[in-house]
Amino acid sequence: MHKLAFILLVVGGLNWLLVGVLGWDIGEIFGGQGAIISRIVYILVGLSAIVELFGHKNTCKECVGGKMSSDSGMGNQM
Fold first, then answer.
1. 22-31: pLDDT as tens digits
2. Using CA atoms, how far apart are residues 18 and 9, in angstroms rounded to an integer?
3. Residue 14 and residue 78: Cα distance in Å, rounded?
4. What is the pTM of this model?
5. Alpha carbon distances (Å) from 20 to 4, 25, 77
6. Contact assessment for residue 38 and residue 31, using Cβ atoms and an 8 Å cutoff
7. Residue 58 to residue 28: CA distance in whole angstroms
8. Do 25 and 18 meet the contact criterion of CB atoms below 8 Å apart?
9. Which of 31, 36, 38, 78 lies deepest, with the highest CB count within 10 Å?
10. pLDDT exceeding 90 applies to what percent of the chain?
């Protein structure tokens, strides 16, 4: 599930890059934002973001066990 969610998030991120740089939405391939297939893709990307948001700590090797906050060294440099 994590890999699928990650792939969909990459697709969504690349889509936003295309929108920002070229003004072109990948959903236009499927008939625009109003087309049912485009809406399904957008919904899947959004659901993937929610899955990753709440499940990331369980799947990320750096975050498991609270390592990210205590062992990263980011806040301990003062």
1. 988 888 888 8
2. 14
3. 37
4. 0.64
5. 24, 9, 36
6. yes
7. 35
8. yes
9. 38
10. 15
The tokens describing 71, both together, are: 């062992």
Q: How far apart are CA 45 and CA 9, in angstroms?
A: 6
CA atoms within 13 A on the CB side of 72: 11
Reported as a pLDDT band with limits 50, 70 and 90, residue 51 is confident
The first and second tokens of residue 7, run together, are 């792939």
Closest CA to 12 of 53, 32, 41, 51: 41
